TrEMBL record:
Name of the featured protein: tryptophan--tRNA ligase
Gene Ontology MF, one: tryptophan-tRNA ligase activity
Similarity comment text for this entry: Belongs to the class-I aminoacyl-tRNA synthetase family.
GO cellular component, one term: mitochondrion
C-alpha cells in the first residue's frame, strides 16, 4: 500500500433517497469505491443535501442517511481506510457551491442531460432550482477534496466534465487552486439496466421496482425479479446490446459479480436456454447480496456506533475541505475576517 501522503485521492458520493441501494449503484460505482480505498486516499460521502432536491420526508431522510452508511460499510467500505461522512456535516460544500454557481453559465447548466430528463418528467412548475444547480454542488463536493479521481457510473460522465470545466475556469481566472479530477468509469458495468426495461438504467426513482435489484431486499424477492427479467424470444445467450438488451444486461451483471469476462460468461451458457441462464444469474447475485444485507441489518442495530463513525469522518473531511475553502476565498479576494 502506498504511503498516505503520496497516494492519489478519490472522492465520490451517493444519495440517501431510498431505503436501499441497487445493484446498478453497486456495480457501476460502489464496487470501485471498495477497491480504490486500498490504493488511494479515499473520501466517500452520503450526499444528503443532493437528496433534498426530491423533497424527502424528514424522518425517512434521517433513517436513509444512516441506512446508507450501514450499506456502505456492509459492502466493504472500511472507516479505518476511507473517510466516510455525511455531506451536510461539512458546511464547506454549500459554501464552495455558491462560488461555483457564480462561475457557471446558465446555458451550460441547462445542458445537463440528467436535469433535462428529470425536469421533463415532472414538468417545469414542479422542478426545483436545486435540481438545476445539483451538478454545481456536485462539482463543489469533488473540487473541495482536491480529488484526482471520481469513481462513478456512466450517467455521471457529463457532471464530471462540468466539474473539470469549472475547476479549470477557476484556476485560469484566479490562479492554481483546484486539482482537476478525472472520472473513474468502468468500460463494462458502468451502466446496469432495469430488468424489466433493459434499455433504461436501473434507477432508485424508477416508476416500478420490479426491474430494480435492491441490496436490502429479501433473497427470494431478488431471485424472483431476476428469473422474471425481460428477455427476447430467442434461445441463445449472446451478448448483443442492440438486439438482446435483456440478455446482455444479465451477462454484464453475471460477469461483474463472478469476475469472468463477458466472453467466458457467454461460453458457460452455450447450448443452455434462458431459464438456466437466469437461474444462474439469480443464484450468483443472491449469494453475493445475502451477507451484505445481513451485515447492514446488524450495523443498523447500533446507530450510535454508525453516528460515531460518521462524526469521525466529518472531522477528517472538514480539515481538508476548510483548507481548500480558505484558499479559494483568498484567491477570490474575499476579505479575511479579522
Ligand atoms: N444503473 C446504474 N448503473 C451503473 N451505475 C449507476 N449509478 C446509479 N445508477 C446506476 C451510479 O451510482 C452512484 C450513486 O448514484 P446516486 O444515488 O448518487 O445517483 P443517481 O444516479 O441519481 O442514482 P439513481 O439510482 O439513478 O437515482 P435516481 O433514480 O434518483 O436518479 C453514481 O455514481 C451513479 O453513477
Amino acid at each position: 500500500m502506498a504511503d498516505v501522503g503520496t497516494r492519489k485521492r478519490v472522492l465520490s458520493g451517493i444519495q440517501p433517497t431510498h431505503d436501499s441501494f441497487h445493484l446498478g449503484n453497486y456495480l457501476g460505482a460502489l464496487k470501485q469505491w471498495v477497491a480504490l480505498q486500498e490504493s488511494h486516499d479515499a473520501f466517500y460521502c452520503v450526499v444528503d443535501l443532493h437528496a433534498l432536491t426530491v423533497g424527502p420526508d424528514p424522518i425517512e431522510l434521517r433513517r436513509r442517511t444512516l441506512a446508507s452508511a450501514a450499506q456502505l460499510i456492509a459492502i466493504g467500505i472500511d472507516p479505518a481506510k476511507s473517510t466516510l461522512f455525511v455531506q451536510s456535516h461539512v458546511p464547506a460544500h454549500n459554501q464552495l457551491a455558491w462560488i461555483m454557481e457564480c462561475l457557471t453559465g446558465f446555458g451550460e447548466a441547462g445542458r445537463m442531460t440528467q436535469f433535462k430528463d428529470k425536469s421533463a418528467k415532472s414538468g417545469t412548475d414542479r422542478t426545483v432550482v436545486g435540481l438545476f444547480t445539483y451538478p454545481i454542488l456536485q462539482a463543489a463536493d469533488i473540487l473541495l477534496y482536491q480529488a484526482d479521481q471520481v469513481p462513478v457510473g456512466e450517467d455521471q460522465r457529463q457532471h464530471i466534465e462540468l466539474t473539470r470545466d469549472l475547476g479549470q475556469r477557476f484556476n485560469s481566472k484566479y490562479g492554481q487552486t483546484f486539482t482537476i479530477p478525472e472520472g473513474y468509469i468502468l468500460k463494462s458495468g458502468a451502466k446496469i439496466n432495469d430488468l424489466q426495461d433493459p434499455t433504461s438504467k436501473m434507477s432508485k426513482s424508477a416508476a416500478s421496482q420490479s426491474g430494480v435489484i435492491e441490496l436490502m431486499d429479501a433473497p427470494e424477492i431478488n431471485m424472483k425479479k431476476i428469473k422474471g427479467a425481460m428477455t427476447d424470444t430467442e434461445r441463445e445467450v449472446i451478448f448483443d446490446e442492440k438486439n438482446k438488451a435483456g440478455i446482455s444486461n444479465l451477462l454484464t451483471i453475471y460477469s461483474a459479480i463472478t469476475g469472468l469476462s463477458i466472453a467466458d460468461a457467454q461460453n458457460e451458457f452455450v447450448g443452455k436456454g434462458y431459464g438456466d441462464f437466469k437461474s444462474a444469474v439469480a443464484t450468483v447475485v443472491v449469494d453475493f447480496l445475502t451477507p451484505i444485507r445481513a451485515k447492514a441489518q446488524e450495523l443498523l442495530q447500533d446507530p450510535a456506533h454508525l453516528t460515531s463513525i460518521l462524526r469521525d469522518g466529518a472531522e477528517k473531511a472538514n480539515l481538508v475541505a476548510s483548507k481548500t475553502l480558505a484558499e479559494t476565498y483568498e484567491a477570490l479576494g474575499l476579505l479575511p475576517r479579522a
